[in-house]
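Table S2 (text version). Query chain:
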Amino acid sequence: NEYKSYLRKMAIDSYIQMKLYTLTKRQFLFLFVIFFSFFFVSIFIGWVGPSVVKETEVDKGSPIKNGVVALISPEVSNAEQQLWLQIEVNLDASRKEPFIEKTTYSIIPIKLTLYSLMNGTKSIINASPASHNRTLKCKNSDSTCDPITVLHLGFIKFPQYYVEIETSEVLMNGSTIRPIWTTYNAKFTEFELWFRFIFIILSLFVAFYIFQSLRKYAVQDWSIEQKWMVILLILVMLYDNPSFPLLLLVDISFISVLDACFTVTFLSSLLLFWLCVYHGMRKAERHFFSFYFLKLALVGVMWLVGCVILSWCAVNEMNDPSFSLSQDQEGFLAIKIFFFALLGVYVLFLLFLIVRAYSELHNMPYFDVRLRFLTTLTFIVLFISLIAVIVRFGSRSILEDSSVMAITLRWNNGAEFLSFYSLFNFYIFTLAFVYSPSKSAMNDRYKDNPASFAMLSDSEDEIYRSGKKFVYDDEEESM
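Corresponding structure-token output:
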């Protein structure tokens, strides 16, 4: 019975011998060294690269008269990608009391009218500006309040902009506003274009290598990891975003939506990949409803929520430059809570599948090493990602006001940009390499000898069970 159970296990995804089975311990160590070397070199290149953003102060302070203040942006270009305007309010001493002595938070109405400015001629952009409430946070010991974001342009269409800000005349008259104009650094845009291009070329090269190595075999003979590599290599190219240059050239909201959906789709596919592989190692028959449906439903809802939120932001910012998700804070807060609840369910589901896979397969040759390698590399990637997120957003709540998040979601430096893109690209490349067919795969099809795999044992003793040595005979060949 033990021998038959072993054969049934070996019948699952053992048709094509992968490089994973033939690597020695030293080669595995060398593989991890290469992975970390490329990753840290990428971070170093990003660290010494150009700064990400450029902040400009056109004037030191503009007084608010009759509840209105006018501001002129610095000259900008398409290469600077996007434009943000933050205002730092310095309260009039006579009006400091209602803000500071009673409360550190106050709600002020802001209506922003945007004009294009070309050769001294103004042309209105948003003919019917909407009024939005903004939260003004002031320190008890100072009249200067924290900056608030009042404008975000996802595409720079004109060389200069003129902005009129209307606010409460009763509360704000006599106060001054210090504008902070922020754009991407044009040199960083060039830096980003080159590295996205490099990652796309590398993805194409690895995809071509995998397709060429697998085309010799029927698709039904591919392991579940090999099938997923074909999908992930296509999606990682979308993650690198070949349409990125269009974001600099075309003022169409669809391009911004496409960029956001590419990222969400790739990350969602990774979540689905982990669920399918950890479950698929234990299951030979993978019918759609019994195997894929629940996983697709869980990850699909998370994907849909992510795409809807990002698309909603992109479309609304095109129509209303002062739009912020904080205007629908209750609805947005509910969506975020729902998303994190789904993420919690996903984590529990994945941990359950990992525990079941280890409990059933950890003593099985081939399956043991497949589990250990995927789990080790995946947890390294997740740990690095978690550290990067904590360093980037650790001082802020995940449920904070989205107007703050709008300014913090930019990269702080090139190292942050390259760390995320290089991490996920090199993760997929490493998996693609170890899951590709070995040189002897054609000869060893259906005859994967566990004793030949060096990582499992340095001798043949470990493939004995109950005093008997497992061998491959005609019964296994028939399977």
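Notes on Table S2: The chain has 15 helices and twelve strands. Confidence is low (pLDDT under 50) at residues 99-103, 395-409, 446-479.
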